[in-house]
Amino acid sequence: MSELLEVRALSVRYGATCGIAEAEISVPAGGVVSLLGANGAGKSSILKGVAGLADAQGEVIFEGRDLSRASARERVKSGIVYVPEGREIVTALTVDENLTLGGFLLDGRTRAARRSAILDLFPEIANRTRAPAWMLSGGEQQMLAIGRALMSGPRLLLLDEPSLGLAPLLIRRVFERLAQIRTETGLSILLVEQNYAMVSRFSDVLYFVRSGQISGHRLASEIDMSEEARRQLLESYLGARH
Ligand SMILES: Nc1ncnc2c1ncn2[C@@H]1O[C@H](COP(=O)(O)OP(=O)(O)OP(=O)(O)O)[C@@H](O)[C@H]1O
Question: Start and end of every ABC transporter domain (predicted)?
Answer without folding.
Answer: 5-236
